[in-house]
Write a structure and sequence with these properties.
Elements: H1 2-37, H2 40-68, H3 74-93
Helix pairs in contact: 2-3
Length: 103
Amino acid sequence: MRYRLTFIAGLALGYVLGTRAGRERYEKLKKSAREIAQNPAVRNTAESAAQQTRTYAGKAFHSVSEKVEGRVPESVAGRVRSLRERGGTAGTAGNDDWGTSNT
């Protein structure tokens, strides 16, 4: 019984010390991540990547919708056509389908 109590006390002490050290390390990592995310170069790169992704996704959407349109029921094909037509004007409006800007 004495060994079990010693083991449990050691386990509890190790847990407390480990969580305290882990929390400090977590806070340091969180601070570093926040600093990196606020860096203008990182923000510009992320926005450029997002813009390129929107462009490629739009091209892929049009390509796939043209190929699939003839092989699906008319109700679905009509919806695809309306999305394709709407997508042609979304780029000039400055917003995508999610309401975010393309800047």
